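thought: fold this chain, then report.
action: predict
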Amino acid sequence: MICKCGLEYAVNKPNCKIAAVKDLNLAKAIVANACEEYEIYAGGVEN
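observation:
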């Protein structure tokens, strides 16, 4: 998942723009609530 803004605050890492989510339930929750500021990538291929 790539976030165009705000991810650095969610993960408390300055300038963070990309994160891997390994927990299936967390990933589903993020995708369900994602706004247009998020882009979803899986296995290096854009969905």
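thought: worth noting. The radius of gyration is 10 Å.
final: tokens above.
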